[in-house]
Amino acid sequence: MRADLRKTVHHAVLLAACVPFAPAWAQTAVPSPAATPPAAPAGSGLDDLPPPEEAQPAPDIAPVQITVLATGARLAVDRSGQPISVLTAEDLNRIQGTDFTRVLQQVPGVTFANNGGQGAFTGIHLRGADSEQVLFLIDGVRVEDVSAPGAGFDFGTLTPGGIDRLEVLRGANSVVWGSAAIGGVISVTTRQTNGVVASVEGGSRGTFSGNFDAGVKKDRYAYAIDAGYTTTSGISAAASGTEPDGYHQWRIGGRGRVSLTDALSLQATARYTVGKTDIDGYPAPTYTIFADTDEFQRTYQFSGRLGAHYEKGVLTLDGGYALSSTRRLVFDPSTTPDLEYGYRGTSERADLTGSIKLPSDFILNFGGDNEWTRFSSTYDSEAHARLSSGHVLFGWVGPVASLSAAIRVDDHSQFGTHTTFGANGSVKVTSAIRLRASYGEGFKAPTLFQFYSTYGNRALVPETAKSYDAGIEYTSPDGRLRLGATIYRRDSSNLINYVSCYGVTDGICTDRPYGTYANVGSARADGVELEAFYTPTQKWRISALYSYDRAVNRTPGDANEGNALARRPRNVLTTSVDWTSPLAGLVVGADVRLQSSSWDDAANTMRLGAGELTTLRASLPFGNFLDVYARVENLFNDHHPTAAGYGTIGRGAFGGIRVRY
Length: 661
Description:
The chain has five helices and 33 strands. The protein is mainly beta. The chain has one domain (2-660): TonB-dependent receptor, beta-barrel domain (Maltoporin, Chain A, Beta Barrel). The protein has a 22-stranded antiparallel β-barrel. Strands 3-8-9-6-7 form a five-stranded mixed sheet. A two-stranded antiparallel ribbon has the order 1-2. The longest helix has 17 residues, at 2-18.
């Protein structure tokens, strides 16, 4: 183990000494004109900035970023009491590739575990929270698979094509976002193109990707459409297998906006994907060894929203109707019929949020929504649930400080009422130093599967968490150096675990011969996040992100009490640097990610080794309309699994072109 770690560090040191790197300049990249945030509303913390002609930054200094993740209304990122990372379209172009986990690696506190190659199931851990405890939004729509046991989102089905912006809020924030926001919130926004953008890419393992975006953006209206296709022959999902398991996905989406008056506009978004993932299983005759099979899964995903935005004077309102649906079908060509089983989950949501600017820099945000979910499967008849919610946030956004506190009440058709509280603050103590702190509560409603499936338990109550963090940020007077440090802790209780009923016929196992779900778990995650971004000149960009996360089972009396939670490496370091050469604007760079070992199981008996991933990248612009780019992923061909028994992706080379008009 120590030899492996020394080898990893040796690779990183050699690369640092010899190769220009490429950055993920999270909150500091200058976005393209289409991605530039809209003018800030009153009360956003931006109205005290000087006019544009007095505040023009150097080309390498970022404009102020705006987010809605902190309070539900638009707010400057540097006024939020919670840590928020932002990646723009330029960051995504610089990172390159068809695997979205490579993008998420550029955010502190994020780790992942996947079941094989690209397209295989991929779960995200944010500050040690389960993937199902992280809320994921596409264009403001919750897109979790409500038919899955934990009702999480499979990040293996997400590609960067058509995405314009990524925002990640780290820490519990259910007071604004409701169920599932225990570990944090991840939000992506699709592209509103003004013109045409197209790209094609190919490379190792039969990988090909093509993306097309086109749109028109005017003062009174805008519309855009995006489409893409990704395919790869892949690798064997089973580490012991020899047959590659491929992935193929079609994607189409669109968005539009029209201003009916100066104060009122209508907006619509939609996204649809169809994917096919080859999977491995447990073949005959023993059905006990994970190995090559001919099975595959088809996944159909739809999400969309129709809404209205009103803004006049001190009042801002947003309302709409959203729909999200996921259907999963698993096939085995060796059987008749070949359809083994299937699941379908649907979520509908009606919402209204608003913000009022009060005198003396005070603000009042409020909102309410009603969600209807349903699921069915080959083994379970259709089940339904309703969740009605309302929240109110009162805050103050002054010239050098901001404070807010909020309360939320949820009413569920099965478990009843749940109340959530949160508060945070930020203060600029000098022109260069900002302090922030937050307290947030999170909850996750039991899923339809946990309530109503063959294994269901209708006595379940929500999982809950209390989250604390504090941080400090430094920005140099010229804006070229930014440093940040955050400490945090999250205590979770009432965690829902699967309970085996083998040999037990009484108590909770009555009439459940196989097992059921119960609120029996507790856990604690605490850690440190360090961030550094440096632009010594306009030709260099450097970043380093370090996370220490200790996630531990704290269930009293449990056999695994005190053990580390599975598949959570405690130490993760990501460094990125890129350099613009004098050769026709050629940009060369690399990313290096180091992570420590972790455990694959709750008993901490099977260790997953430490590892490193290094990517070399280059891009060459031809005017303002064409880029040619290439990269080598996993340069040192490191094979460290994120889930035991599953295959890992080795070295690969890729190249492509991107056209803008």
